[in-house]
Amino acid sequence: MLSSTAIPVFKLYGETQHWPTPDLLHCESIPERSRLHDWRIRPHRHADLVHILLISRGSVELELEGTSHHLESASVIIVPAMTIHGFRFSPDVDGHIITLAKPLADHLHGTLDNGRILKKAGFYRLASANSAARIATLVDQVDQEYRQPAAGRKQLLDVLARALTIELERLVVPAKASLKRLGPQRREKGQQHFDYFQKLIEKAYREQPSIEALAKEVGISSAHLNLLCRKIAGRSALELLHERLLLEAKRQLTYTNMTIAQVADSLGFSEPAYFTRFFKRNTQLAPREFRQRQLGSE
């Protein structure tokens, strides 16, 4: 099993070389590079790059933070910076991978209203033919523009990247739609509270603070916090805290040699048995079973 420090940090998709382009964006077809690696890109992460993958044909076994997912076309995968990920593509795969340098990703987020799509790892099946066609068209335009020098190339790439980000953001709009019922000022304030709550989770999840304590630090009641979390993220405040705990547990079980007891202790559980019940309740697997399955997929 790999230790957490053994997960390579790549400069680009499968590479340790430096960024190969003066642009803040890199685009290539998935077969271009994956066929060189026998269609398998082993788990790795990037310190300051964001991936957008469009699978337009074929399939991929996606490993995302220790969990495996089978995706068919047409699907989109988002991989933010520092997210551990790996791919096993089918030989008939087709599609593109667009990689954004962090300054560009941050800029794109700054131009959106509460946009978060490039900051959250995820995958989306493009069930709507219209949505799939719009995203595929934008990806093709990015690819064509990227490959040829032309007047206004940088400006057009920026516009296309922004349009693509907006289309991707729309994929998760349903989970946020109810927030629009609030007025503009309340909506902005609510998003600020939610963002601060997420920062607090990231800072303190290992201590397993109570939702009441977190809400007090945000400056609102726990009932108000839960309302915001359900409107913006579609889950309760406690579910979001537990999601972060579970993600870290999966990382530790997959990428380190820590014992179950050590993982439990590192995540604030007073007894390994409590951790085992928590993990099984959320994954239907005991921690040991989960680890064995991950080893079996190597």
From TrEMBL:
Cited Pfam families = AraC_binding (PF02311), HTH_18 (PF12833)
Looking up PROSITE patterns in the UniProt record yields: HTH_ARAC_FAMILY_2 (PS01124)
Q: Which domain of life is it from?
A: Bacteria
Q: What are the HTH araC/xylS-type domain coordinates in residue numbering?
A: 195-293
Does the keyword section mention Protease? no
Identify the stretch annotated as signal peptide in this record. Answer: none
Keywords for this protein: Activator, DNA-binding, Transcription, Transcription regulation
> What are the recorded GO MF terms, alphabetically?
DNA-binding transcription factor activity; sequence-specific DNA binding
Identification of the protein by name: Helix-turn-helix domain-containing protein
The organism encoding this protein is Vreelandella populi
